[in-house]
Amino acid sequence: MNITVFDDLDTLYRKAADTFVELSEKAIQKHDKFTVALSGGSSPKTIFKLLATEEYANRIEWNKLYFFWVDERWVALDDDKSNFKMTLETLLDKVPVNRAQIFPMYKEGIEPKEYAKKYESQIRNVLGAEGIFDFILLGMGDDGHTASLFPGEPVLNEKEKWVDAYYLGSQEMFRITLTEPIINRAENILVVAFGESKKHALNEVLNGEYNPKLYPLQLIEKKEGFQIFTDDKAIDRK
After folding, report:
1. By mean pLDDT, which of 10-14, 170-174, 181-185 is the weakest?
2. Of 64, 80, 102, 165, which sits 20 to 30 A from 108 (CA to CA)?
């Protein structure tokens, strides 16, 4: 596990974009494609905007990238709450990605749980039986959740399915999400979590007792290839 504490967010975002580019180059050299699962939220939005700039975009072989999502609110793809919509507007519409290699985590006219099965099939078709993403980008909520793995929800106990969907009562909506088993298979995982509001949960995740039902990010194995980018508002420098 590698934790990097940044003095300012601009540097953090640029390092995240650099990491994306570097990992894409390694994966493409290794097996001629780069498979990623992206998260939503304000932090990835800035990273995606950077990747769409000429400085970064020209360094990426976009036709060899396969885009999946870590999780999604069960809303239409053109809904402002959609992670897909945000990624499309900030990145995918601005770079030469093969549209057949983009896999939105929502489909009209199908129930969430049924689509979770179909989404897992799409992942298997691209990643194979081992299900190893080259890169997964995660965030962390103030409550310690990551992806749509929220505190106290039964999805935290899932060990077989790679994708699951469930009704999140606190938000009065369905969520669809990658589960712990598939996330932990990833070659590289980057968690971006910064700001004062994250400090308590991040400290518990890193230094507290193991209690993933309360702090779900603890489910993600802190192994080689696992990185956290943060700032000194969210973590005390050692």
Report:
1. 170-174
2. 64
> Alpha carbon of 84 to those of 72, 96, 104, 146, 191: distances in Å?
8, 17, 6, 17, 19
- Spatial distance between the Cα atoms of 33 and 165, rounded to a whole number of angstroms: 28
In a domain, residue 238? The reply is: no
Q: What is the pLDDT of residue 226?
A: 96
Q: What are phi and psi of 87, to 5 degrees?
A: -65, -40
CA 157 to chain CA centroid, Å, is: 19
Count: domains in the chain: 1
Rounded CA separation 14/176 (Å)? 29
Residue 237 included in any domain: no
Query: Residue 42's pLDDT is what?
Result: 82
Task: Report which residue type is found at 15.
Answer: K
Band the pLDDT of 237: cuts 50, 70, 90.
low
Q: Report the predicted TM-score, pTM, of the whole model to 2 decimal places.
A: 0.96
The CATH number of whichever domain residue 57 belongs to comes to 3.40.50.1360
- Tell me if 236 is assigned to some domain: no
Residue 174 counted as domain residue = yes
Distances (CA, A) of 30 to 24, 96, 145, 187, 224: 10, 22, 32, 12, 18
